[in-house]
Amino acid sequence: MTADKLGNLLNRNENGELGDLVRRAQALDTLCRALAAALPPALAADVLAANVREDGELVVICPTPARAARLRFESEAMLAAARSAGAAPTRLTVRVTHQADQA
Q1: What is the tally of structural domains in the chain?
Q2: CATH number at residue 87
């Protein structure tokens, strides 16, 4: 692969082949940072990932059912934070990762 081809592949501009992917990753990072900033520090660390689906559902991933329950109490703060990050969520869903039991 030539240097020019590699440069185009990694170009974050609209004409870059991975531009859409890079912009999407940046948007998700911005969303996660906005959510974390809106939460108490102990809860912010438990937001593992977040996304806003096309139907307006804000999906937040956390590690345990107990944290999921606690995060649901912060739904209005998280919806407002997502809106401030440029998203347009209408409702919140908190999901728990399915991690293997840790010893």
Answers
A1: 1
A2: 3.30.300
**Distance of alpha carbon 88 from alpha carbon 98, whole angstroms:** 27
Nearby residues of 32 by Cβ (< 8 Å), 6 or more positions away: 47, 49, 50
- Cβ–Cβ under 8 Å, residues 36 and 42: no
Print the domain residue range for 75. 3-96
Domain assignment present for residue 20? The answer is: yes
Helix (H) or strand (E) holding 61: strand 57-62
* Alpha carbons 64 and 8: distance in angstroms, whole number: 41
pTM, entire model = 0.77
Which residue type, as a one-letter code, is found at position 21? L
> pLDDT by residue for the chain (103 residues), tens digit each?
676 666 666 665 656 667 788 888 899 999 999 999 999 998 999 999 999 999 999 999 999 999 999 999 999 999 999 999 999 999 999 999 976 554 4
Whether 46 maps to a domain, the answer reads yes
On whether residue 101 sits in a domain, the answer given is: no
